[in-house]
Design a protein that fits this description.
By secondary structure, the chain is an alpha+beta fold. It has a domain of 99 residues: Roll (Thiol Ester Dehydrase, Chain A), CATH 3.10.129.10. Helices cover 19% and strands 32% of the residues. It contains 5 helices and 5 strands.
């Protein structure tokens, strides 16, 4: 008997409720990128951008990614890593229901995103909102670095919507 799950599509979202719908590859963020993020967001916290300061002063003894840096990587760690929903013309960030920065991601550590489909709300206009539970795992760590319940608004390919 074939127990393979059907392809994830706009039409069958509910069949995937409670299931993992994506697992990204392992990734790293370099010190150069962590520093650039700090400067771009005008948050030059030495815990994120100054390795010498972090070795001497940080409770982690090394630089770590900013929480908002972790959060900003979610689009890359989903769509950018192959998560695709068939029959969807457009997916738009609709916000978050819950975000927790649980533990740090040291700069240059490997991490990945595990995505579970938590909720589907069909709308009268033919669109749908989905909530995915995202968990950033750091290789070798006991706890996730970030957990976030992310809401996206989906437009189907259907005409007239």
């Amino acid at each position: 008997m074939d127990t393979a799950k059907p392809e994830l599509t706009f039409a069958n979202l509910e069949a995937h409720l409670g299931h993992e719908i994506a697992l990204s590859a392992w990734h790293r963020v370099s010190q150069e990128d962590a520093t650039a993020f700090g400067h771009l967001t005008r948050d030059p916290d030495p815990m994120h951008i100054d390795p010498e300061w972090a070795r001497a002063e940080s409770p982690y003894s090394e630089t770590v990614l900013a929480g908002f840096h972790m959060l900003s990587l979610l689009p890359f760690l989903t769509r950018g890593n192959g998560l695709s929903i068939g029959g969807v013309k457009l997916a738009m960030n609709y916000g978050f229901e819950r975000i927790r920065f649980v533990s740090p991601i040291p700069v240059n550590s490997q991490f990945r995103n595990r995505v579970q489909l938590s909720r589907v709300d069909r709308r009268a206009d033919g669109k749908a909102t989905i909530v995915t539970h995202n968990s950033l795992e750091v290789r070798g760590a006991d706890r996730p670095a970030l957990v976030a319940d992310w809401v996206n608004l989906l437009w189907p390919h259907a005409t007239g919507v």
